[in-house]
Design a protein that fits this description.
Layout: H1 4-7, H2 19-34, H3 40-50, E1 56-59, E2 62-65, H4 66-84, H5 96-115, H6 120-143, H7 147-174, E3 190-192, E4 195-197, H8 205-224, H9 229-245, H10 249-263, H11 271-288, H12 308-320, H13 322-325, H14 346-379, H15 384-404, H16 413-439
Helix pairs in contact: 2-3, 2-4, 3-4, 3-7, 4-6, 5-6, 5-14, 6-16, 7-8, 7-9, 8-9, 8-10, 8-15, 10-15, 14-15, 14-16, 15-16
């Protein structure tokens, strides 16, 4: 059965706030409102990943986490910018990914409330969900507007990963989690099969390692563009260290997936063939294997005490109980079998949490991201440097997908996922907009200010012509318009 404390999110029944965290929160809030707008996202990310999620104010039954306060402050700053500085909410306009994300959020909220019959606890839970997920995405979408912002975010991630890597090394060697002294996280780390599973400020070692592993392709992109190889190198080493110190299979597989995708660069023109080859191989294996093909997951393990068999069983039960969750999700997955309440698979979690609607929207978001990257790369075909530029983001996306088979993002790791989605939209927008501009027949006329009387009107580009436009009227021998002829109007 699902533990009762997890049904609506759980959490402490009182305020947990260390004085140092409170001071850091005040500094962050002042910085978000006082510093230039572009630095607001830096403070949101720092508070998200260097403060344990358990640090909170408990107000009227609502857990007001530090990250939620930072998100709210950033949203207010964004609103002020839109009102007083006339800054557009989304750089490049609303994309298909933005629409999908909002639909995904709506599906999740509606189905969850229906599933729990709109009880007050469910309403509070989904209010927090909107605050965390939609609020976090909107903050990142507003403040990450161009490549310069992406670079700033990656420098911030490099700093965060460095701090976390050093703390996780200390945790691994001294068996003490320094973040535990802040409260809300155990000081004594988990030890499995004789290995310390360091987690730093995260809720679970898998999530800490996954955070570092999925950042490695992005740091390699930062190396590729040549802005700061020192920062990129530190980021790669820190992300790899986090994946190793977690002592878990999922982060190491995600790290291998990201680097392995980069190694497939020479085969970029054969990716369609490769994808269909994988599909055919899975079909053949389904036919010849005694167990369903998804039980291949149980044979993939890097660490000795890996629970890959649980992941395979979870997928199997998810498919077998399709009728239980497809409409609005389910809260009875704990009855499917031993430990089936532990949805350590993001795809399974999407279906159980919101039914087929959220599951399909989640898959669609991934598909749209790959589509944007593929189209942008093809638009840059012939320029290997620019093609590589987009390939790194595809590697980071695939790294997250591999991680999704081993863990669901239930803590601040989701902010790293949202940041990648926003980066992909931002970095591909210019390449996807260029073909549209090139195929346009009519050049846009720039808006001009009102000119004083007697001023000359600036020349404008000529309107498009056609053989039958502006045709002069035919005349008879007397020079008069021919009977029955009407000049066509331009």
């Amino acid at each position: 059965m699902t533990p009762e404390n997890l049904k609506f999110g759980g959490g402490a029944a009182g305020t947990v706030m260390h004085p140092l965290v409170f001071i850091a929160l005040l500094v962050a809030l002042i910085s978000i409102f006082v510093l230039p707008r572009k630095y607001a996202v830096v403070w949101v990310l720092v508070m998200a990943f260097l403060i344990p999620t358990a640090q909170q104010f408990y107000v009227g039954g609502l857990h007001v986490f530090v990250l939620r306060i930072a998100i709210l402050a950033a949203l207010i700053r964004a609103l002020f910018s839109m009102i007083f500085s006339h800054v557009r909410a989304f750089s490049g306009g609303i994309s298909s990914l933005d629409i999908l994300f909002m639909i995904w959020t709506a599906f999740h909220v509606i189905t969850f409330l229906i599933l729990f019959s709109f009880v007050p606890a469910a309403l509070v839970n989904q209010f927090g969900f909107i605050w965390d997920f939609l609020g976090g995405f909107l903050v990142l979408r507003f403040f990450i507007r161009d490549q310069e912002d992406i670079e700033r975010v990656l420098r911030t991630f490099a700093f965060i990963a460095t701090v976390l890597a050093l703390c996780m090394i200390y945790e691994h060697v001294r068996v003490v989690n320094l973040f535990g002294y802040l409260g809300g996280i155990a000081i004594q780390p988990e030890i499995r099969d004789g290995l310390v599973r360091a987690k730093g400020a995260f809720a679970h070692p898998l999530l800490a390692g996954t955070f570092g592993a999925t950042l490695v392709p992005l740091f390699l992109w930062y190396w590729h563009i040549g802005k700061s190889k020192v920062v990129a190198t530190i980021g790669v080493l820190s992300g790899t260290t986090m994946a190793i110190c977690a002592s878990s299979s999922t982060p190491l597989l995600a790290l291998a997936a990201g680097i392995g995708t980069l190694c497939f660069w020479p085969f970029r023109k054969y990716m369609r063939m490769l994808r269909w080859g994988v599909v055919v191989a899975l079909v053949v294996l389904q036919v010849v294997m005694k167990a369903p093909v998804w039980y291949l997951i149980s044979h993939i393990q890097v660490m000795g005490a890996s629970s890959s068999s649980h992941r395979a069983e979870l997928v199997d039960m998810f498919i077998r109980h399709f009728s239980d969750w497809w409409l609005i999700g389910t809260n009875s997955n704990g009855e499917w079998g031993f430990d089936m309440w532990d949805t350590s698979n993001q795809f399974v979690g999407e279906g159980i949490g919101g039914g087929l609607g959220t599951f399909v929207c989640f898959i669609a978001m991934i598909s749209v991201c790959f589509s944007r990257i593929g189209k942008a790369r093809k638009a840059a075909e012939g320029d290997p440097a620019k093609e590589w530029y987009y390939w790194f983001f595809g590697a980071a996306l695939f790294s997250h997908i591999v991680a999704f088979f081993g863990i669901s993002y239930f803590d601040q790791t989701r902010m790293a996922w949202f940041a990648l989605l926003v980066m992909i939209v931002t970095v591909t927008a210019p390449a996807l907009a260029a073909p549209v501009a090139e195929t346009s027949d009519v050049a846009p006329i720039a808006e001009t200010e009102l000119l004083p009387a007697g001023s000359l009107v600036p020349d404008r580009p000529p309107l498009p012509t056609h053989p039958w436009l502006n045709t002069p009227p035919r005349k008879n021998l007397l020079g008069q318009p021919a009977r029955g002829f009407k000049a066509r109007r331009s």
